[in-house]
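User: Reviewer 2 asked us to show a designed sequence for the structure in our supplementary figure. I'm pasting the structure tokens here. Could you produce the per-position amino acids so we can include them in the response letter?
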């Protein structure tokens, strides 16, 4: 830092990250990273109205803890006074003025620092000056380090002027005082009354004498101060007493304050990019002669060095022809607020998924083998015996099939930076929830109706690993055709649907009372059926289930528009206890996390390895709509 600090007078934190300021805002990491290396003005107490309040400049340096600033005071009365105040520990706080802020729930994520001010106390309690550089002869530099209370400690050797030089300076000061004494005598009489009044305010009575920590009175302590500290004290008193406006600095119990022109102040009197009444009047006067209000606005801002970033006299969604109200009034509307920090999933109704996955029979092995003996043929019948004849042996077929497992998975990747930046909710938990929902739906879909992908799709769940009920062979799945004409109305179609289902019910050999899985459209049309008097045939879904001889009716959204053998699928009747799912859930299913250090990515995988098939003959009924042209011609 040695070479660099020779150019500056003092340095410190202009703002600290993750510190809650007096107005509730918190500066977050790298909110002002783009300001690194930028130079801004050094101002006293954010007072932009008087050029004398510009004290010098500050060079900004972005660090992990916040923004650090190196200050250089101008060679002016105010600049030199500010330097002396900092050196003496009278001013130890920095404060920033920023605009174009981007905020999230009170956290400042981005903004532009326009100036840095010396203040009596900052809104950010850790924005303190901690280094003071004293420049001596031959460019030698000594550094003072301040603590939070403003005390300083001299930490490096410092070559100052010699004692002779100090005496010369004192002699010069005395000669200047003698030269000005004569001028002061001329106005002495005029100031007598004023000085007497000030003396009365400063002097203390013997009965009420304020003492310093060393037992001295304030007057005695003041007299013993070096000459340059007397000047600092006088300047400080002058700053406090010269401001007669309402812009007072109010300190809270926590050390915060309401400062004139502070980015953390709620009720700011003046900000950049704000036109006062006099400015607007000048713009309109110019527009009357020039003819263009927009051009007059742009010319005025350019002539007066007004930063027009983010400003527009006629916003893009307003029109110059508007004759009432306030143009672009929506700029005053509050920010949009999310009802919930966690985004809701737009998904299909998956109630049926729990019915399917909770109803199937689960076994702790993955390779399923089914064997059956067909004793329905005549050869398997018992035979009558005639005395003296030879007895013939029984003959019947043995049937069987095997089903192997397949892996089903969901894979997701997230950048680590995104995970860290999303602070409103746990995005990893949210993503894992989506993965679990979609994996369960895919398993249930494959069991009931198949995954729907073509045979050559590499992501297809193969039918010989998880055998879908609607596509299973006739030994296990009975296909029921609802035969209607292609131009038949809805009443005819769904009355025939009920009749065909009841007629085919005798073929069902499944266990217990089955469930009807269908679509909302089919259920609705059945409930709308009426008799000739206009009365509903079925008052509710339970009445319809009783009519169809099923335990319950469950609607399946993914069944909408599904076709089997080029016929519309109307429903599936099955007792899911006759469908066996093989797999060791303790070992084959799990959520896996991994981190790719090269790409700074987290990877998440959820997968299961399973097999599935109907294991009871004639245990399912698939109901299809068979529209025929022949029936259409017959009715015509």
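Assistant: Here is a per-position design you can include in the supplement:
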């Amino acid at each position: 830092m040695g070479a660099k600090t020779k150019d500056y007078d003092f340095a410190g934190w202009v703002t600290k990250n993750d510190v809650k300021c007096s107005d509730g805002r918190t500066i977050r990491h790298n909110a002002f990273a783009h300001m690194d290396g930028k130079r801004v003005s050094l101002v006293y107490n954010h007072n932009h109205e008087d050029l004398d309040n510009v004290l010098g400049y500050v060079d900004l340096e972005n660090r992990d803890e916040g923004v650090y600033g190196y200050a250089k005071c101008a060679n002016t009365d105010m600049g030199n006074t500010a330097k002396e105040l900092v050196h003496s520990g009278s001013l130890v706080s920095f404060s920033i003025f920023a605009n174009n802020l981007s905020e999230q729930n009170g956290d400042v994520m981005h903004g532009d620092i326009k100036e840095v001010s010396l203040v009596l106390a900052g809104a950010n309690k850790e924005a303190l000056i901690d280094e003071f550089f004293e420049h001596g002869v031959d460019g030698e530099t000594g550094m003072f380090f301040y603590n939070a209370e403003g005390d300083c400690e001299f930490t490096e050797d410092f070559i100052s002027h010699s004692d002779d030089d100090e005496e010369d300076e004192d002699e010069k000061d005395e000669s200047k005082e003698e030269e000005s004494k004569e001028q002061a005598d001329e106005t002495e009489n005029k100031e007598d009354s004023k000085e007497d009044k000030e003396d009365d305010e400063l002097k203390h009575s013997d009965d009420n004498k304020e003492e310093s920590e060393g037992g001295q009175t304030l007057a005695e302590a003041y007299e013993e101060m070096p000459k340059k500290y007397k000047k600092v004290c006088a300047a400080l008193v002058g700053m406090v007493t010269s401001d007669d406006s309402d812009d007072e600095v109010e300190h809270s119990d926590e050390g915060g304050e309401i400062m004139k022109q502070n980015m953390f102040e709620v009720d700011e009197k003046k900000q950049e990019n704000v036109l006062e009444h006099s400015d607007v009047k000048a713009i309109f006067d110019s527009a009357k002669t020039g003819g263009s209000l927009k051009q007059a606005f742009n010319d005025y801002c350019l002539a007066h060095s007004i930063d027009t970033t983010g400003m527009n006299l006629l916003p893009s969604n307003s029109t110059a022809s508007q004759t009432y109200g306030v143009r672009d009034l929506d700029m005053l509307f509050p920010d949009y607020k999310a009802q919930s920090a966690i985004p809701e999933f737009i998904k299909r109704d998956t109630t049926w998924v729990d019915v399917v996955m909770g109803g199937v029979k689960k076994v702790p092995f993955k390779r399923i083998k089914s064997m059956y003996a067909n004793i329905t043929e005549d050869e398997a019948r018992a035979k009558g015996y005639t005395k003296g004849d030879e007895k013939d042996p029984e003959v019947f077929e043995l049937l069987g099939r095997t089903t192997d497992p397949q892996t089903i998975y969901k894979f997701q990747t997230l950048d680590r930076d995104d995970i860290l930046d999303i602070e409103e909710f746990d995005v990893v938990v949210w993503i894992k929830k989506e993965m679990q929902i979609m994996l369960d739906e895919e398993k249930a879909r494959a069991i009931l109706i198949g995954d729907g992908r073509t045979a050559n799709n590499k992501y297809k769940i193969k039918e010989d690993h998880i055998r879908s009920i609607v596509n299973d062979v006739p030994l296990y799945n009975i296909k029921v055709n609802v035969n209607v004409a292609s131009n038949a109305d809805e009443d005819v179609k769904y009355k025939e649907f009920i009749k065909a289902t009841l007629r085919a019910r005798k073929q069902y050999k499944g266990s217990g009372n089955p469930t009807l899985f269908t679509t909302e459209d089919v259920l609705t049309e059945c409930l709308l059926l009426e008799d000739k008097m206009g009365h509903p045939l079925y008052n509710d879904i339970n009445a319809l289930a009783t009519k169809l001889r099923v335990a319950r009716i469950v609607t399946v959204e993914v069944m909408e528009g599904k076709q089997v053998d080029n016929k519309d699928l109307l429903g599936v009747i099955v007792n899911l206890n006759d469908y066996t799912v093989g797999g060791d859930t303790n070992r084959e299913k799990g959520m896996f996390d991994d981190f790719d250090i090269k790409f700074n990515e987290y990877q998440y995988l959820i997968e299961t390895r399973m097999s599935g098939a109907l294991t009871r003959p004639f245990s399912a009924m698939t109901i299809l709509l068979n529209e025929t042209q022949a029936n259409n011609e017959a009715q015509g």
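For the response letter, you might also mention the following. The first strand starts at residue 10 and ends at 16. The chain has a mean pLDDT of 76.
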